[in-house]
Amino acid sequence: MNSYLEMDRTSLENELNEVKLLLEEKIKQNIKLDMSRGKPGKEQLLLSSGLLTSVSEADQCFDGSIDARNYGVLAGLPSARALFADILDVSPSQVFVGGNASLQLMYDLISKAYTHGLLHSPAPWAMRGTVRFLCPSPGYDRHFKISQSFGMELIPVSMTPLGPDMDTVEQWIKDPSVLGMWCCPKYSNPDGIIYSNETIKRIASLHPAAPDFTVIWDNAYCVHEFDGDYVPFPDILSLCAENGNRDMVYEFTSTSKITFPGAGISCMASSEENIDYMTKLISVQIISYDKLNQLRHVLFLKDKAHVLELMKKHAEVLRPHFELVESILESEIKPLEIAHWTNPKGGYFISLYAMHGTAKRTLELCAKAGVTMTGAGATYPYGIDPFDSNIRIAPSLPSLEELRQATEILCLCLRHSALEQLLQTRM
Amino acid sequence: MNSYLEMDRTSLENELNEVKLLLEEKIKQNIKLDMSRGKPGKEQLLLSSGLLTSVSEADQCFDGSIDARNYGVLAGLPSARALFADILDVSPSQVFVGGNASLQLMYDLISKAYTHGLLHSPAPWAMRGTVRFLCPSPGYDRHFKISQSFGMELIPVSMTPLGPDMDTVEQWIKDPSVLGMWCCPKYSNPDGIIYSNETIKRIASLHPAAPDFTVIWDNAYCVHEFDGDYVPFPDILSLCAENGNRDMVYEFTSTSKITFPGAGISCMASSEENIDYMTKLISVQIISYDKLNQLRHVLFLKDKAHVLELMKKHAEVLRPHFELVESILESEIKPLEIAHWTNPKGGYFISLYAMHGTAKRTLELCAKAGVTMTGAGATYPYGIDPFDSNIRIAPSLPSLEELRQATEILCLCLRHSALEQLLQTRM
After folding, report:
1. What percent of chain A has pLDDT over 70?
2. Rounded to an integer, what distance in angstroms lies between the CA atom of residue B324 and that of residue B344?
3. N or C: which end of chain A has fewer CB within 10 A?
4. Residue A425: which pLDDT band, with cuts at 50, 70 and 90?
């Protein structure tokens, strides 16, 4: 195979015809495959079957003197706060344990900022006119959708291999209408980037014009290495405190990709003052989250060391999925010079950059062939990828055989759209 | 014992001295008792131990083809929607199953009304200037706190033995700033009143000035008879639809007082249009609620008939608690003519009306003697009982022996404050 970039018009046309035939064959197979979301697969779910029986008798339902079945203890069971504190390297008093979704805690934080204001807000965000939020892109579509849902103006910030472009961030935060920033600092969604220490330090020492500027530190993949050992990561809460920014950051994580995606537990970590403030607001919303599920997790996961052991087992399952996709891309696409992609060592995604202007068309073709991918542009604010290039590949859910089929189809579609594009630009 | 109302000043003084001595003795005993919240007691929690093992193996984690452990299916497992539909006598498509707290669903409804608006809102409530909300009183303090937290103006509406005073309600809804009404229609908190069919019909056929006026129908005690058989109750959704008010009501219930208070499942029921609208808004907040706990509940509770059997067992535990409090009040307080109270057949509370102007003082004395009760006034908007009279008694949590002690202390405190009051007014 030769680079498409060096082919003449006739070769491109021949190639396109060939690809079309191959793709038509695939369409005939009536395949239905989903690589759209970072959903753990069946084998991974089986790793946590012990969670189903970790609390199976009435007298196991206690955390000290607290009955996990009954109402109360809004900030979470002490043992669950301690577990997350261990994982995130913070103190239990900085941890609020919620329900099955950290996304809900993030949404509620933003929602309460709008209706009630945060600890240092001069007024609720609903009263602040235009609210701007920094969106390192590509990023997590659900983050951006929360911002969009509240009518914020989403400000794209480029991602670099070291994290968000901090020159841009430092420029924007001088604007008092910029009230926060989404971050997925370790194995970023979708690029799999680990923010560098320098980037993290610059974030912790920001001097934003808005007194309630809030960094949402979604540490979703904090222990999610699938290739190699656990990578220690700075504690953003301490770093912010050291830089006079105690209350500037809320960190989030969950067990969604440690135990069961839909039935795990989540947490929010921040300064004690922030946690106290939010706990008071949340006390109007709910008496307490599901402490029985918190207890199940505490008994099953035990501590960080034990969590890391479990994550090694996830890694054994996940790594072949990533390796398969990467090896097919390597052999099928690399020589053609029509795309490049990330080779992450943790997280849930491979981020592929197709030839500019071809991502939408590629995914349209994939859909026709029965392969569902995350919508093109979804990883950018407002769903608009300025280069129409980024494609998020989520290899975890399909079986290896399905994944092979889906990736081969993706490769054909990438070739198809690139060939169309090249033919059009050379007319 | 004679009525305090007929005693002369000297007798009142002697009586007060005697009560003071009795109370001092109690204080010396260093009692710590809690009758503040409608928390199920230990025996009740044991009734649902089967829930701990109803899903204990990986291959039980499925509802049809849906894996309850994984992400997705935001509106809830089909089987869980069917279970609540059975309990509430509505259709599964009208049911949205949430997490462990119906309060959270109610809060989120109001919160989204403020930030996004409801289906028929001309604008989000945050943009509507003064928002007024009808609060049948006495009522559930947590309802009123949600309204208060969003800065609504709380409009008290008197409770009658048939439900809220509908003449007042029908007057108020002509005001376009009145955007809703809290209702606890069966075994109302705290009075234990069942809204009459006539009241329910009048609610269902309201013609409010505000197009997005919303009845919050908190059917928390829908199957919660502790004395006598299950009392069928009209389906408010059908009644509203019949009266051209399809989208006017959101009904809520949960298993908090069927299985585990802190680890149950909850639901919201409304027109399909409302459920679709809310599901779209909630899809930004959370991917899905804990379906595994939904499945545990479906397998443990089975259907309404089976739920009613379980509620009979709760009744066996609860009834003696209510009977004990009522019998002590009957013998200790009734002859004195200083208070009257409800004798409910379901729900979680006895609502006591002390001599006007003495509720606060009574509970202050209770606290000194180690008995925690719901704060005086808590059952009224802004925590202000216009008569300083209502005291909410929650007899479920303490053991019978503790309950006897606590009720005896309450009786002494009622006598103490009544005597003080009578002596003052006769000066």
Report:
1. 100
2. 13
3. C
4. confident
10 Å CB burial of residue B239 (0-12, 13-18, 19+) is middle
Quick one: CA dihedral A80, A86, A89, A91, positive or negative?
A: positive
- pLDDT (0 to 100) of residue A36: 86
DSSP state of A193: P
Mean local confidence (pLDDT), B398-421: 97
DSSP per-residue string spanning A75-122: T--HHHHHHHHHHHTS-GGGEEE-SS-HHHHHHHHHHHHHHT--TT-S
Least confident of A28-32, A40-44, B45-49, B404-408: A28-32
pLDDT-derived band at B1, boundaries 50, 70, 90: confident
Residues of B in contact with A150 (CB under 8 A): 115
Alpha-carbon gap, residue B288 to B77, rounded angstroms? 10
- Strands annotated E in A315-364: 339-341, 350-354
Query: What is the maximum alpha-carbon separation in chain A?
Result: 78
Angstrom distances, CA of residue B316 to CA of B96, B247, B319, B328: 31, 38, 6, 19
The pLDDT > 90 percentage for chain A reads 97
Q: Which of B303, B220, B225, B234 is nearest to B266 (CA)?
A: B220
Residue in A with minimal Cα distance to B264: A290
Q: Report the C-alpha gap between B4 and B9 in whole angstroms.
A: 10
Residue from A65, A70, A142 whose CB has the most chain B CBs within 10 Å, to mutate: A70
Residues 6+ apart with CB under 8 A from B26: B369, B370, B408, B409, B412
B190 phi and psi, to 5 degrees?
Answer: -105, -5
Q: Do the chains contact at A290 and B99, CB–CB below 8 Å? A: yes
Query: Touching check for A164 and chain B: CB below 8 Å?
Result: no
Q: Which domains does chain A have, with CATH numbers?
A: 4-45+308-425 (3.90.1150.10), 61-301 (3.40.640.10)
What mean pLDDT is predicted for residues A113-142? 97
Nearest by CB to B285, from A52, A104, A263: name it.
A104
d(CA A379, CA B138): 50
| Residue A178 binned pLDDT confidence (cut-offs 50, 70, 90) | very high
CB contact under 8 A, A290 and B46: no
Mean pLDDT of B240-254: 98
- On average, the pLDDT of chain B sits at 97
